[in-house]
């Protein structure tokens, strides 16, 4: 498991959110559906989510409600959350 995580984190050519979702899937597979990945970006910890007709990955909305914190989008002009992978 440690090697898988290190390999994912070393891939600098991949979008940060793609790496995040791969980590989320990996930890959910190992620890179950309640696993949560917190990614430190600068001085903030971020949680991401994709929730559309095709995929549901991440727990941003659930965590925001539990902690009573603000949920926001990186790009507020895009209403639907999409995940593009190669």
TrEMBL record:
GO terms for biological process: mismatch repair. It comes from the Bacteria. It comes from Aliarcobacter butzleri. GO terms for molecular function: ATP binding; mismatched DNA binding. This is DNA mismatch repair protein.
């Amino acid at each position: 498991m440690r090697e898988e995580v290190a390999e994912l984190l070393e891939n600098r050519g991949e979008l940060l959110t793609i790496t995040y979702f791969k980590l989320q899937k990996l930890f959910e597979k190992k620890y179950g559906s309640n696993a949560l990945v917190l990614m430190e970006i600068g001085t903030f910890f971020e949680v991401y989510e994709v929730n559309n007709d095709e995929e549901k990955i991440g727990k941003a909305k659930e965590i925001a409600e539990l902690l009573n914190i603000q949920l926001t989008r990186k790009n507020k002009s895009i209403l639907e959350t999409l995940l593009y992978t190669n």
